[in-house]
Design brief:
Layout lengths: L1 H32 L9 E7 L2 E8 L1 E3 L4 E2 L6 E2 L4 H14 L25 H5 L24 H8 L16 H15 L3 H13 L5 E2 L13 E3 L3 E3 L9 H4 L1 E3 L1 H12 L6 H7 L18 E5 L2 E10 L2 E8 L4 E7 L7 H11 L2
Antiparallel strand pairs: 1-2, 1-13, 3-4, 5-9, 6-9, 7-8, 10-11, 11-12, 12-13
Helix pairs in contact: 1-10, 2-5, 2-9, 4-5, 6-8
Length: 352
């Protein structure tokens, strides 16, 4: 009798577990299909909890002209999620003693006009540098298609007037991460592409991640779109322009490898890993809710580490909650359809 009762309990638990997983899948499907239609540019979503993949699906179209449906393994441009990789690269060099986070940028770029201000790598990493964001400059349209060296790109914005004193305000700034990429090259003696490929992609086993290129044949690359009274191809941009602030390509599986590499300290020791996720403060002591390359926000009263991306034709978002080890990432191939809210909603479903 005890044996029968035990078997019944085990069967009951397994059945409930199966229904729970099925209900979760149905809820996530509903969130995504309300926004991404089968005939339109699509998206891929991956959700993981405590090391187990609980959701991995593709929606919509990868290529409208070739009528190719989206697949989970397809590769997207991830835009500003690139900043995570740039920040970790700087932390790697700091851990190796090749630079310090409180070093002034003029130590590496002596002719950079700071107007008498002290601008450090920390200011660049936390978007508190006061440097003007070059993507807000009207003249960016004049260089968007040009292949520029990092120095030429820095020269494009370095003489712009400052917005505030370093450390006084948080103001999201792509220019700061361009400068960090240039400094990574100066300090390491490698191009930014070489550095992240050798020190991050290879170490983390990310075989489907790249510094973006229009020339290279990239397997499983999806096409990017925009909506202008109907879907059209994304505008062309030279990848030398977003550079270290937004030029990485990847897929959801590799981004999970990236998250796992951070969690297991494959790339940085625990002390330097923690620096990426510290909620830094302004000069007046106000928290900025940003670390180095990650926003620090709340979902269900739990701190999440997240960052999105936006580049011509693409949107991205990745969310990680450390106490329950929840990771959710969404990648979209239309700049008209962001996965941000859905990604956070999925994370909320997984966080107890």
């Amino acid at each position: 009798m005890k044996s029968i009762l035990k078997s019944f309990i085990v069967l009951f638990i397994m059945t409930c577990s199966g229904l729970s997983a099925q209900n979760l899948e149905t809820k996530i499907d509903s969130l995504i299909t309300s926004k991404f239609k089968p005939e339109n540019p699509g998206a891929v979503f991956l959700a993981v909890k405590k090391g187990k993949v609980v959701y991995r699906k593709a929606f919509g179209m990868a290529d409208l002209e070739m009528n190719i449906k989206m697949k989970p393994e397809f590769v997207f441009e991830i835009g500003s999620m690139t900043k995570q990789f740039t920040a970790v690269s700087v932390l790697m060099l700091a851990e190796q003693g090749k630079l310090k986070l409180d070093d002034e940028i003029t130590k590496f770029i002596p002719d950079y006009p700071t107007n008498g201000n002290v601008i450090t790598l920390h200011h660049l990493l936390t978007h508190t540098s006061e440097i003007k964001d070059f993507t807000s400059m009207k003249s960016i349209k004049d260089i968007a298609r040009q292949d520029l060296s990092p120095k030429e790109l820095v020269d494009f914005f370095k003489n712009e007037p400052i917005d505030f004193k370093p450390g006084e305000q948080y103001k999201y700034c792509n220019s700061g991460y361009v400068l960090l990429g240039y400094i990574i090259e100066i300090v390491s003696g490698k191009t930014y592409e070489e550095f992240i490929t050798q020190n991050i992609f290879k170490k983390a086993g990310m075989e489907n991640s790249y510094y973006a290129s229009h020339d290279k044949i990239i397997k499983n690359r999806v096409s990017g779109y925009r909506d202008k009274n109907g879907y059209i191809n994304a505008n062309y941009i030279s990848f030398s322009i977003p550079y270290a602030s937004g030029s990485i390509m990847s897929n959801v599986d590799d981004l999970l490898k990236w998250q796992n590499a951070i969690n297991t300290n494959i790339l940085l020791n625990p002390v330097y890993t923690e620096k990426a996720f510290t909620n830094y403060k302004l000069n007046n002591g106000t928290n900025i809710d940003y670390g180095y390359g990650w926003h620090l926000e709340k979902v269900k009263n739990k701190i999440i580490r997240e960052h999105g991306g936006s580049i011509f034709g693409f949107k991205s978002m990745g969310v990680y909650e450390p106490t329950e080890q929840v990771y959710v990432v969404g990648l979209s191939n239309c700049e008209c359809n962001s996965p941000t809210s859905i990604t956070k909603d999925i994370a909320a479903l997984l966080i107890d």
